[in-house]
């Protein structure tokens, strides 16, 4: 365990419980002077003290993890990268703020997001009124999709009440793992009177996988769906029929800003429930640990595809039964991010694109092949990434297919538990240096840099060297 200083969090815990230093020291079985040193960051928090906190207050030791600190630092770095601030905030200052005043840090991040949303709404309104169209078009308004994505990010991609409810049904009904589709169809018909009917290739609109007729109690599915996909669609319908009140309750508490976001959130939560039913938490985590997180073997075991397994692996964060905290992302060839989920501290930039040195983009040149990469972020944290392409066909010969690259990543400290670390040099010193995106990346000498970082003033010498890739072809006047 590396040295971790959590004095402010410990002091806040004591004040919330209305305890004196002497009372807390007695509960933890340590001396008053030692507690005082801990609260003033003169001594690091140790594992015995963490265990004593857990025993005395029932706290999850994960709440004192430095993962939350790294996540907040990433959010603060983006929030304070605005050139309007007039100065660059050093990483050391961000770390100090995240460590000693996390509540203030979170407030700054929240204020920045509200400011950005207000700016975007103002630009959109100006565009509609015909005012300053160039300025309005420079900033795209936030979308309901992004709002829902941020909701799952804020919850570490884990919704415990849905996860546990889905697993309880799967275990109680003894649904056959990996072959759930017939059993789920029978469950829908016996419990809800819903009959499943497969289309004849022309009854459903192109690209539609499921259509439910509530009046006739008929659920139509595409014949193109594989058994695992059928099971997922059945489970999604079960979520909507049996747990719609719970879905709406979660949505109401989240405070989404419009009906479109609420509608998308309802679909996202129903899909989350379906994943938890087809891949029940306890069984899936046990098999993942057994097979060292081999994605393809897990896909065969549970009868689902590569992307579905990656998605589920990024949600295994049940207290006292956590899997490896993964980050999951899906991109297309143009770099558009259509899915991103993070169970821990890795931060996906909202300012500009992602890093071209990331192996998720190399996957398109090696279709169907699993690629591995050891990547180091500017804050010196190192991650193991796994990437592979997935394709979704829509029809027969000549019909266009959708191809994406999906990537799964985790902190390098978990690498030994993963089969993909075999034969890989996991020394952080040899890791590929990547960033969150050019606009917020601190690596000025990157050969793939597309434009300067936000707020970085250039002098004439820099424009000839570090930033030559996007300098104009015109000669610079002396």
From TrEMBL:
Entry-linked SMART domains: HTH_XRE
Transmembrane portions of the chain: none
Tagged with keyword Translocase: no
Domain HTH cro/C1-type intervals: 10-64
Source taxon at top rank: Bacteria
Gene Ontology CC: one annotated term: cytosol
Statement: the UniProt record of this protein carries the keyword Transcription: yes
InterPro entries the UniProt entry points to: Cro/C1-type_HTH (IPR001387), HTH_RamB (IPR026281), IrrE_HExxH (IPR010359), Lambda_DNA-bd_dom_sf (IPR010982), ScfR_C (IPR018653), TransReg_Diox_bact_type (IPR050807)
Pfam families from the UniProt entry: HTH_3, Peptidase_M78, ScfRs
Molecular function, one GO term: DNA binding
Keywords: DNA-binding, Transcription, Transcription regulation
Family to which this protein belongs: Belongs to the short-chain fatty acyl-CoA assimilation regulator (ScfR) family.
Name recorded for this polypeptide: XRE family transcriptional regulator
Species: Afipia massiliensis
């Amino acid at each position: 365990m590396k040295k971790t200083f959590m004095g402010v969090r410990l002091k806040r815990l004591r004040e919330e419980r209305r305890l004196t230093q002497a009372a807390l020291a007695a509960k933890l079985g340590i001396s008053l002077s030692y507690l005082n040193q801990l609260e003033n960051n003169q001594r690091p928090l140790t594992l015995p003290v963490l265990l004593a906190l857990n025993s005395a207050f029932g706290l999850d030791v994960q709440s004192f993890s430095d993962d939350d600190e790294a996540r907040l630092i990433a959010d603060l770095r983006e929030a304070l990268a605005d050139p309007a601030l007039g100065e660059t905030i050093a990483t050391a200052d961000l770390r100090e703020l995240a460590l000693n005043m996390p509540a203030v840090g979170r407030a700054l991040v929240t204020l920045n997001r509200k400011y950005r949303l207000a700016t975007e709404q103002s630009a959109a309104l100006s565009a509609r009124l015909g005012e300053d169209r160039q300025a309005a078009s420079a900033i795209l308004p936030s979308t309901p999709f992004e709002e829902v994505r941020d909701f799952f990010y804020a919850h570490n991609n884990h919704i415990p009440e849905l996860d546990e409810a889905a697993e309880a049904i799967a275990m109680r009904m003894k649904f056959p793992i990996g072959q759930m589709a017939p059993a789920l169809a029978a469950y829908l018909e016996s419990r809800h009177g819903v009959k499943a009917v497969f289309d004849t290739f022309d009854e459903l609109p192109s690209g539609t996988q499921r259509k439910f007729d509530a009046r006739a109690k008929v659920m139509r599915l595409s014949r193109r769906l594989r058994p695992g996909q059928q099971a997922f669609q059945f489970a999604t319908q079960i979520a909507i029929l049996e747990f719609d009140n719970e879905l709406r309750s979660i949505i109401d508490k989240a405070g989404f800003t419009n009906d479109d976001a609420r509608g998308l959130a309802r679909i996202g939560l129903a899909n989350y429930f379906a994943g938890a039913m087809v891949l029940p938490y306890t069984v899936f985590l046990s098999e993942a640990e057994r097979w060292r997180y081999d994605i393809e073997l897990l896909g065969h075991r549970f009868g689902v595809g590569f992307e579905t397994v990656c998605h589920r692996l990024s949600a295994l964060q049940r207290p006292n039964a956590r899997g490896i905290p993964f980050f999951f992302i899906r991109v297309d060839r143009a770099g558009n991010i259509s899915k991103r989920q993070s169970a821990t501290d890795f931060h996906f930039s909202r300012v500009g694109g992602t890093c071209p040195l990331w192996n998720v983009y190399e996957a398109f040149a090696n279709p169907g092949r699993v690629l591995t990469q050891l990547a180091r972020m500017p804050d010196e944290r190192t991650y193991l990434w796994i990437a592979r392409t997935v394709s979704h066909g829509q029809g027969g010969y000549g019909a266009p297919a959708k191809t994406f690259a999906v990537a799964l990543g985790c902190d390098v400290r978990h690498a030994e538990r993963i089969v993909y670390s075999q034969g890989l040099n996991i020394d952080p010193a040899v890791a590929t240096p990547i960033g969150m995106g050019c606009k917020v990346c601190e690596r000025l000498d990157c050969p793939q840099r597309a434009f300067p970082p936000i707020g970085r003033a250039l002098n004439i010498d820099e424009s000839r060297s570090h930033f030559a890739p996007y300098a104009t072809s015109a000669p610079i006047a002396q």
